[in-house]
């Protein structure tokens, strides 16, 4: 995978973020600019080692990464700062707000594996099945990744969908983001409403 292609795709996010130069960002780490989303964990040369201990929750949505191990991802930037996220949806957010960092390595899960948790594989070695009738974290239209094309073929025959590489899956995540964010907001508001009703009851 061309890491620069991933950065170019991140521009499709359309979230209205104006990334200033690195010096300007460094001067405003907590004032609401994209720099406030810089990965807060220390630089990590070996992010796969003790992954869930170091990156238990997605920093963008708060979801438990071990619980969602079939969809979770890791991105290691060129300065070794690493984001452990729950899904390709939240990976798109990380790439979008860390626009001045070039991804050095991105890993995705082998959904077709039977191991628990699913092993992580460099995304350039994965085949993505996009739009199958399989549940996925943070998005209505699933984008699951497979290490073996023949296993992906079996899932496609049973669940539908179309094949693509990582760049295509990331592009589709950006295209789905508006609808997905609207649905996530609706779901969370409904959850808050139910919690308030339980407290009042």
Distance between the termini: 53 Å
β-strand percent reads: 5-15%
Shape: globular
In this structure, how is the largest beta sheet organized?
Answer: 4 strands, antiparallel
Number of helices: 6
Which structural category fits the helices and strands?
alpha+beta
Based on CA atoms alone, the radius of gyration comes out at 17 Å
The tally of strands reads 7
**Average pLDDT for all residues:** 86
Q: What's the SSE pattern? A: HHHEEHEEEEHEH
Helix content: 25-40%
Strand order of the largest sheet: 2-1-3-4
Low-pLDDT ranges: 11-29
Walk me through the structure.
This protein has 201 residues and is α+β, with helices and mostly antiparallel strands. The protein has a four-stranded antiparallel beta sheet with strand order 2-1-3-4, with helices on one face. Strands 6-5-7 form a three-stranded antiparallel beta sheet, sandwiched between helices. Strand 1 and strand 2 form a beta hairpin. Helix 1 crosses helix 6. About 9% of the residues have low confidence.
Strands, helices and their partners?
Blueprint: H1 3-10, H2 22-26, H3 51-54, E1 73-77, E2 82-85, H4 88-97, E3 103-109, E4 120-122, E5 127-130, E6 143-146, H5 149-159, E7 162-164, H6 166-200
Antiparallel strand pairs: 1-2, 1-3, 3-4, 5-6, 5-7
Helix pairs in contact: 1-6, 4-6
Sum up the structure in keywords.
15% strand; 36% helix; three-stranded antiparallel beta sheet; 201 residues; alpha+beta; four-stranded antiparallel beta sheet
